[in-house]
Specification:
With about 80 residues, the chain is mainly alpha-helical. It is about 60% helix and about 10% strand. The chain has a domain at about 30-80. It has a two-stranded antiparallel ribbon with strand order 1-2. A hairpin with a 2-residue loop joins strand 1 (about 15) and strand 2 (about 20-25). Helix 1 (about 25-50) packs antiparallel against helix 2. The radius of gyration is 17 Å and the shape is elongated.
Length: about 80
């Protein structure tokens, strides 16, 4: 495309506040809610078959870390304070 420049596209979905990112747009809220809903679903599914707290923790850990790493990456790349 002629004249297309990625730097002209403003995608401020999050704002950095301390060490965390706070959603400041509808897309930021939607992505954050999807991550939280996924984590709740994983927690319920794993906890249903767990026999102890450590079973639950070991079951949810890889999913939670992956989801929040991806969320942090998206927030960092679409934040107001780069």
């Amino acid at each position: 495309m002629k004249g297309y420049n990625n730097k002209n596209m403003k995608t401020n979905w999050f704002k950095k506040v301390g060490w965390i990112y706070v959603p400041i747009s509808i897309m930021g809220v939607v992505i954050s809610l999807l991550a939280i809903i996924f984590c709740v679903t994983v927690f319920i599914a794993v906890d249903r078959n767990s026999h102890s707290v450590s079973d639950t923790f070991y079951g949810i850990f890889p999913y939670f870390v992956s989801v929040f790493a991806i969320l942090f990456w998206i927030a960092g790349n679409t934040s107001k304070d780069k």
